[in-house]
TrEMBL record:
Catalyzes the oxidation of 3-carboxy-2-hydroxy-4-methylpentanoate (3-isopropylmalate) to 3-carboxy-4-methyl-2-oxopentanoate. The product decarboxylates to 4-methyl-2 oxopentanoate. This is 3-isopropylmalate dehydrogenase. One of its GO terms (biological process) is L-leucine biosynthetic process. Mg(2+) binds at D222, D246, D250. Substrate binds at R96, R106, R134, D222. It comes from the Bacteria. Transmembrane segments: none annotated.
Length: 369
């Protein structure tokens, strides 16, 4: 059956890393005999330039007609002075909201091959495998009013608002993931200050009654930010609201060695999802063949797993990434003096070759079995 994939490269390194996702998916479809149909759409600054809006209707229509969406990154200095209502980032927020993608999964893995690329000590990060479950369509990112006030616009207002149902559905999702993993859930909030966080805690406690086998702890976000670096192996699933999840996931990327290693999936209750790296458009390295494409390629693997239920295909991508890292190959964002530093394009090529080779080897082994 044909799987329709919307491809939204966006801005900066978005297009460079998207090339990696599409090339690994082509390798996967050739090896495993799938039919993937790609339709490209504009988003972010590229869409502002072409259509005057960061999320044109044509793009949203393509996404609504697709089984999954791949997104590179949006934003950059070129659009720093556009009106706040049409900033590139508004396009990203709008697509998440319009498609109801409330559950953002951000897994953080400390690859053994990259253990020395992190400024954190080896013994602190070596067993880390955690999952940040970030609420993605509520909170201060979307609360109204959000505006400037006063004669000279000297007052700025943002609103942090959640309704119980929004909290309930993300907390429920997080419990499900915790139950399927090591049955430990850390809920991160700021309940010593924020009313929304006190409600968040009530919901977590209520939902926990349905998951007696899952151990729950509440943690304040400032303390969580410290513990995530001090003893990251103490965490398994973390559930938190939109802005805390944004900040903690960039922080957690240091455990993996680089922001260029963190993939993400944004899901709703059916299987439709949007898959994008955690990083942004990296204007400082855009167009230089320096971007690490692995976060985007690993996001494509998450798409295979979560939207298409293609577990062995997802593993084929993840194993190929691991094999390339085993060879000592890495992009310049990873600080590994003994390794072999390659550009974006060569990194993509190497992962594709490993997918093809591994598939050919398993075919031969199967024939002799
Ligand atoms: N999902 C998204 O589209 C998304 C996410 C974050 C930021 N942004 C936007 O991106 C723009 C730049 O933001 P920023 O500089 O704060 O964050 P950024 O994530 O783009 O970059 C932060 C740092 O990490 C490096 N980096 C990021 N991804 C990398 C990769 N794949 N390979 C190698 N190095 C990588 C960059 O070179 C930079 O030094 C802003 O407009 C921001 O709003 C978009
Ligand atoms: C670009 C921005 C709107 C976005 C966010 O804050 O959600 C980004 O930082 C992310 O982590 O996906
Ligand atoms: Mg972010």
């Amino acid at each position: 059956m044909v799987k329709r994939i919307a491809v939204l490269p966006g801005d900066g390194i978005g297009r460079e890393v998207m090339d990696g996702a599409v090339r690994v998916l082509k390798a996967v479809s050739d090896c495993f005999g799938h039919d993937f149909k790609y339709t490209e759409g504009l988003i972010g600054g590229a869409a502002i330039d072409a259509a005057g809006t960061p999320l044109p209707k044509a793009t949203l229509d393509v996404c609504k007609e697709s089984d999954a969406i791949l997104l590179g990154a949006v934003g950059g200095p070129k659009w720093a002075d556009v009106s706040p209502n049409i900033r590139p980032e508004k396009g990203l927020l709008a697509i998440r909201k319009a498609l109801g993608l409330f559950a953002n999964l951000r897994p953080v893995t400390a690859y053994s091959q990259l253990i020395n690329a992190s400024p954190l000590k080896k013994e602190i990060i070596e067993n880390v495998d955690l999952l940040i479950v970030r609420e993605l369509t509520g909170g201060i990112y979307f609360g109204e009013p959000s505006e400037r006030r006063g004669k000279n616009k000297e007052i700025a207002v943002d609103t942090l608002l959640y309704d119980k149902e929004e909290v309930h559905r993300i907390v429920e999702k997080a419990f499900q993931f915790a139950q399927a993993r090591s049955k430990k859930l850390t809920s991160v909030d700021k309940a010593n200050v924020l009313e929304s966080s006190r409600m968040w805690r009530e919901v977590v406690d209520a939902v926990s009654a349905g998951y007696p086998d899952v151990k729950v702890e509440h943690m304040l976000v400032d303390s969580a930010a410290m513990k995530l670096i001090q003893s990251p192996e103490d965490f398994d699933v973390i559930v938190t609201e939109n802005m805390f999840g944004d900040i903690l996931s960039d922080e957690a990327s240091i455990i993996a060695g680089s922001l260029g290693m963190l993939p993400s999936a944004s899901l709703r209750s059916d299987n439709v999802g949007l898959y994008e790296p955690v990083h942004g458009s990296a204007p400082d390295i855009a167009g230089e063949n320096k971007a690490n494409p692995l976060a985007m390629m690993l996001s494509a693997a998450m798409m295979l797993r979560h939207s298409f239920q293609m577990e062995k295909e997802a593993l084929a991508v993840e194993n190929a990434v691991s094999a390339v890292l085993n060879e000592g190959c890495h992009t310049a964002d990873l600080n590994i003096p003994s390794g072999h530093c390659v550009g974006t394009d060569e990194m993509i090529q190497k992962v594709v070759e490993h997918i093809n080779e591994n598939h050919a080897i398993s075919g031969i082994l199967a024939a002799y079995a």
